[in-house]
Amino acid sequence: MSAVVKPKVPIAVRVAVAAVLAVIFLYVVPFVVPGYLVSQFATVLVFAIAIVGINLVTGFGGAITLGHAAFVALGSYTTAILVVRYGWNPYATIPVSAALSWIAGWCLGFPALRLQGLYLALGTLVLSITVPPLLKRFDVFTGGVQGLNVGNPEAPTFLPIDDSQWIYFVCLAVAAVLYIVARRILSGPLRRALVAARDNQLVAAVMGVDRATLTTATFAMSSLYAGVAGSLYAMIVGFVSPDTFNVMMSLSLFVGAVVGGITSLNGAIVGAMFIQFVPIWASDIDVSLGGLVFGGALIVTLVVIPAGIGGLGERIFLWLCTRLGWVERSGATRDGARAIGTAQNEPA
To answer: Residue 256 has what pLDDT?
Structure first.
């Protein structure tokens, strides 16, 4: 039986890494980089939230979904309608967007039980195709083709920051909470149940995994993340329109999940930066390079680093920990080895 090796980083190193990350996210990004980039980094955090949802349903649940733009649209329009039509505080709309997206994802989970692989991907792709026309149809609430002007939330007057820095900190706080929730979900028995249902449904059934409940719950949680991302996206942009949430957004989020690592929560921020900045840099060279860059990045990632940049980074991290001796073996394996050694030392 092979031992399970887990990294055991010294506390001092953890504190140092946490301090560096805190300096980057809490000081460098909001106060050092140019002001126009702060809003773009806030958008990166929003995309990272949506990509974490894709990691849950695709990377660990094994369900290929290309319809996340529909749930992002649901969250964005929920915020826009409540703010514009009913005068709600924009921050109060975030839990409403999350709840509606969770319900929509739960409802989508039931037909997903009968679809797998390519058929499920095509079904969710149809969802992305049909949402923009529906939003244009109900123009009484959605504003139709013209969209809705939400406006950007203003920073509190008692804080010495501008509006872009304020919305960045809001997105950072929400992203941190949702990241911790996803990490907690994937650090216990639910992770093993998801992987078992993804890799072998028969074995999962023998283990007592309720695939129907697990699949619908995974879709619901993934949709919740997309809905929260959509709500924050409406606050950042200050305007929502049907054409924003098209098929290209769904494909971009999926490409970001693959590039960052489809099973790597840490890679979500890498994938989000890719889909936010790389198309801008490519368009500076040639407007037609955006699609080429996305397609090329997807092919290269699948061929060269199937685990994505985040997965590659985690493997390098584990290798470094092994070389430095910062590892520990699983408790069961360690106890078993101790028992075997005791038995071998006992006289016959």
So the answer is: 93
Asked whether 148 and 142 are in contact (CB, 8 A), the reply is yes
Q: What is the mean pLDDT of residues 51-72?
A: 92
Measuring CA to CA, which residue among 80, 251, 242 is closest to residue 152?
80
Rounded CA gap, 280 and 285, in Å?
9
Q: What mean pLDDT value characterizes the chain? A: 87
Buried b (16+ CB within 10 A) or exposed e, 40-77: bbbbbbbbbbbbbbbbbbbbbbbbbbbbbbbbbbbbbb
Helices (H), the chain: 11-23, 35-54, 68-84, 93-112, 117-137, 139-142, 163-185, 189-199, 201-206, 211-237, 247-260, 268-285, 289-304, 308-324, 331-345
- Cα 112 from Cα 93, distance rounded (Å): 28
How far apart (Å, rounded) are the C-alpha atoms in residues 87 and 222? 28
State the virtual CA torsion across 260, 266, 272, 278 in degrees, nearest 10: -50
Q: Which residue spans within the chain are E strands per DSSP?
A: 5-7, 148-149, 239-240, 327-329
**273, 323 in Cβ contact below 8 A?**
no
What's the rounded Cα separation, in Å, for the pair 164 and 153?
Answer: 9
pTM of the model: 0.90
Cα 124 from Cα 102, distance rounded (Å)? 16
Token pair recorded at residue 53: 């949802």
Is residue 63 a contact partner of residue 236, using CB atoms and an 8 Å limit? no
Q: Where in the chain are the domains?
A: 33-247
The alpha carbon of residue 8 and the mean position of all alpha carbons in its chain are separated, in whole angstroms, by 26
